Amino acid sequence: MQELHDHDHGLAHDLQTFIHAATRRRQALRWLLGAGTVALVGCGGGSDDTDDSSTSTTSTTATNTTTGTGATTSCSVIPEETAGPYPGDGSNTSNGSIANALALSGIVRSDIRSSIAGSTGVAAGVPLSIEIRLVNTGASCADLSGYAIYLWHCDRDGKYSMYSSGITDENYLRGVQSTDSGGVASFTTIFPGCYSGRMPHMHFEIYRSASVATQYSNKLKTSQLTFPVDVCQTIYNGATGYSASISNLSQMSFATDNVFSDGVSLQVASISGDVVSGYTATLTVGISA
Q: Do residues 222 and 54 touch, judged by C-beta distance below 8 A?
């Protein structure tokens, strides 16, 4: 009660003090909300992904403030990255023939662990469910539904189906999914291995719809995503079949990776789970649509 008596200077003074304090609280709230930028993270590629001439270090940011709730949402355009030498999107050849998984019957699928179209191989490894949420940086980070994402990556041995020795007849770990009403495309796959010269990564291409996701010339964007280093270490050290990845990862870092050396803040996926039951990863990808 003593504190009240010490500050008893009349109604006018009390009103002025209240207004000043409220203003300071609103300013602090705006600062905290502005600092709550949505983190967009992703993943990298392999040592033989030497053509990264398309890599962009520039990102476009869009900010939307929703009146009434005071919430602020920010999103940035994910960097353009190389598709690497193993895209399987019709842009190059393997064994003298055009390699185009996008033309295969059944390529539009969520579970990409098995081969399709007459091939029967199945990729072994730690189960991974990944959700890629596509948003429009040019429209207040609105979800982009009805788009298509082509995802591909190496197996736990660091090999790519359709290209690598011993699995040129396989086409697993490749698939296309359309984004749902929330802008999300979901895939069931395995955690990729780490091969020499690259940080663990996945590749993806974005198309306006599944109907045009038939060859590389129709794509809107190419990029890569990656994972936190500690998670990669846990999986490689705790799961069978990833022994080569342990030493390969120990010799690499994002700073020395030929794709991620310019920064990975928009390409590192959030991930949770364990080696026994598998992992779940999420990544928000911004494009200017």
A: yes
Is the sign of the CA dihedral 241, 111, 271, 198 positive or negative?
positive
**Residue 284 CA, distance from chain mean position:** 6
Query: What distance in Å separates the CA atoms of residue 274 and residue 252, rounded to the nearest whole number?
Result: 23
Mean pLDDT across the chain, nearest whole number? 83
Spatial separation of the C-alpha atoms in residues 130 and 201, rounded to whole Å: 13
Q: How many CB atoms lie within 10 A of CB 201?
A: 27
Say if residue 193's pLDDT is above 60.
yes
* Cα–Cα distance list, 167 to 26, 162, 174, 243 (Å): 60, 6, 13, 19
Q: Are residues 24 and 104 in the same domain?
A: no
Query: pLDDT of 31-42, one tens digit each?
Result: 333 334 333 333
Rg, Å, the chain Cα set: 23
Please compute, for residue 169, the number of CA atoms within 13 A of its CA located in the half-sphere on the CB side: 5
Residues 17 and 110 in one domain: no
Asked whether residue 137 falls in the same domain as residue 208, the answer is yes
Residues constituting the chain: 289
Shared-domain flag, residues 109 and 203: yes
pLDDT at 50 > cutoff 60: no
pLDDT of residue 95: 92
Residues 264, 81: contact at Cβ < 8 Å? no
Location of structure tokens 């895939």? 187
Beta partners for residue 127, in sequence order: 190
Task: Give CA–CA dist 29/16, Å, rounded.
Answer: 20
Claim to verify: residue 224 and residue 154 sit in the same structural domain: yes
Residue 178's domain is classified under what CATH number?
Answer: 2.60.130.10
Range of the structural domain that residue 155 is part of? 38-287
Question: Are 168 and 133 contained in the same domain?
Answer: yes
Which residues does residue 152 pair with via DSSP β-bridges, in sequence order? 174, 203
DSSP bridge partners of 224: 203
Q: What is the pLDDT of residue 72?
A: 34
